Amino acid sequence: MLAVSAPWLRLFILLCWQTALRFSEALAVTPRSYDRETQTAAIRTKGGKVRVIQMTREIAEHLAPTLDHGDPDKPCIALLKGSRCSPGAVRSAWYKLTKSLELTHINPHDLRRTTATALYHASGHDIRAVQQYLGHDEMSSTLGYLAPLTAEKLGDLASLLNFHKRTPKGPVQ
Q1: CA distance 44 to 102
Q2: What's the chain's Rg over C-alpha atoms?
Q3: Beta carbons of 43 and 29 less than 8 angstroms apart
Q4: What element of type H or E holds 11?
Q5: Model confidence pLDDT, tens digit, residues 146-155
Q6: 71 and 86 in contact (C-beta within 8 Å)?
Q7: Tens digits of per-residue pLDDT, 40-60?
Q8: For position 112, what pLDDT does the model report?
């Protein structure tokens, strides 16, 4: 997806994937919200809170051309595109891209879910770390983001418990 995307759409994809931003949050990143020194962006979340998100080197490289480009409150994605960039225009470009790559069952929010699952595994299954990274108030919201285990993985977990091999050693007290 990244290799064949226009730079503005590539930035959108990277923001949704590498930082797990929601669609509207990715569109809201502006030169004013971005701190070059710390490579972080202050984002107003769905719940109205402000979160500071660490940007990756790759995202910082895509943001760089937009930082001294006039209106500091204009979305970086629109600055890269060179014109207004409505949510509808982003969705349309997304669906054209995914259709051309025969990835018709993926949407931008799936990138957030992918990052949540990867972080869960990379953090040694620290669900609180994932919750904090995603900015969720409720643990149940975070749990809904994690990919379900495969039947094989569930079988591996059951075998670790060895329930089927335990035999009583005497009368139950």
Answers
A1: 33
A2: 21
A3: yes
A4: helix 7-18
A5: 877 666 665 6
A6: no
A7: 999 988 878 899 999 999 999
A8: 93
If residue 155 lies in a helix (H) or strand (E), which one and from where to where?
Answer: helix 151-161
Q: Is this prediction's pTM over 0.85?
A: no
Residue 130 contacts residue 145 (beta carbons within 8 Å)? yes
| Integer angstrom CA distances of residue 71 from 79, 82, 88, 96 | 9, 12, 22, 29
Q: Which long-range contacts (CB under 8 A, 24 or more apart) does 19-23 make?
A: 19/53, 19/54, 19/55, 19/56, 19/59, 19/115, 20/111, 20/112, 20/115, 20/116, 20/119, 20/133, 20/134, 21/53, 21/112, 22/46, 22/109, 22/112, 23/87, 23/90, 23/108, 23/109
Q: Is 89 exposed, middle or buried (0-12, 13-18, 19+ CB in 10 A)?
A: middle
Domains and CATH numbers, the chain: 7-104 (3.90.15), 111-165 (no CATH)
Of the candidates 29, 9, 5, the one whose C-alpha atom is nearest the C-alpha of residue 19 is 29
pLDDT tens, 64-120?
999 987 789 999 999 999 988 899 999 999 999 999 999 988 999 999 999 999 999
Burial of residue 104, with CB atoms counted within 10 A of its CB: 0-12 exposed, 13-18 middle, 19 or more buried: exposed
